[in-house]
Amino acid sequence: MSKHRISPAKESRQDTIQNTPAQTGAALPRSEDVYEPITLQQRFLRAAVALTTAYLCAMFFGHPLIFTSFYFNITETKQAYFLIVSGLYLLLLLFARIALPPDFGVTRPHVPLHPAALFLFAFYVVSVTGSLISRYRSEAFFGENNRYQGLLTLFCYACLVFVLSRQKINLRWPERAFLLGACIVSLLGVLNHFALDPFGFYNNLREMDRGRFLSTIGNADFYASYIGMAFAVSFGYFLHASGKRKQLLSTLILALVCFGTLVAGSDSAALGLIAVAALLPLLLFTDADALRKMPLGWGVFFLCAFFFGLLSNKLKSATYLSSFVTILYRPAVSLCLSLCSVLLWFALKFAKSERIARAKKPYAITLLSALLFGALALVLLNTILADLPLGRLERYLRFSESWGTDRGKIWAFVLRVYEQLPPIQKLFGASSGGLFHADSIKPIFSDAALDTAHNEYLQYLVTNGALGLACYLATIFLALRAGFRRSKREPMYRGLTLAVVAYLAQAAVNIAQPMTTPILFVFIGVLISREQEPDPPAISISHSCSIH
Description:
This protein is an all-alpha fold.
């Protein structure tokens, strides 16, 4: 038997095989980490992930909490924070791309442009066109008379959604940052409601304004807009939390955000909750375990409402409560709903997973039928059945100029303004300050100027035109479709998808502003981001090397 000398290259290769972590008991690295050098493209991707995670944490945690001069410049403060943090993120990402260019001669995978990002850019282009043909071009850039939703902000939204759609995002830390910020906002909201002001927000505020300002958000309507999203994300975390410690933590977070939701002095928060309650099961029918936990989450909410009612009877209230909450926190209502939640949980506990999955289509049909029936009922109650007495429901189901704190009067005025626009402006909009200047000619209120329609969809119709509204709705639809599909595989995305749904529901009676609207567009970018590839299977080395 002859022996052959082994070359140094083969010796090195043999040593590598013989000393693999599989034989030493250590974790086995990926083959490309062992034998292939890290390329510039891989370094850029790692830098992009780190920058994106840092940006999302800064937005989700810092944006709701930032303030400088209490409530007196809070709109400008949050607008500046959003623009600075977002601009810095985009610039750093650009510098990383310049410093780490694509590897020469290496083909990069093609990443198609997501249609939602494309429609949002179209929305911006339509807005620019409408501003150019408007007589108020000078104020279209910053949007001072449109709660700062001008061309600068819209451009930032479009760039953010485009960039986020190209990233692979790990939501672990961003979700934690959002939940921490939501807990602080909720805690401050509850303290403010019970006349406790640890930071001195109310010191120089007029007495008439103190009842409708909460936490670090400000106006009760803006607070309700944020807290609806916070409730959705915290509920989503409650559903996907695993392990006893995480389950306990998720329950405490959900309870605190529930208390924060109850003190929202705007009925728009109720719209967000109803939308979440209606659409949440559609995300869970393919996950029987999460669906079984859902009634427990609602049970936590109703129990919080019960204890909130007890506290409200003992402690002084300094801010307004919505009509929805004043009914909900009554013991007869909250305890009854808590009992129903327990019974539903008990019924689902013994239901088979296959049977739960089959219920998705009947539930969707029932939900759609209920929406159509509700729309028909509203039309009949305001036409043929206009004389039918409705009691306390009159203020909600009967439309008039005083409906929704004069929103009926505002919406009628907005529709008249749109009807009087030239045809080209009906398509491209009257620009950012169009509604403000239309109101200045013949004000509908003697004590306040009207700069928004108090309905985001009507506002976009006037300021951005029919084309702009269509592009915005297309962006939202495509983002939600991506969120619903992705939630089946990645449970963390359920809360974000529901947060967008909650925002869209309350937007029917609310306005776009720097407090919560930027977070909506960040959510949209995350929902349409690139999906993470599954980890490659472990490599086992079972062969042995012998020398003859």
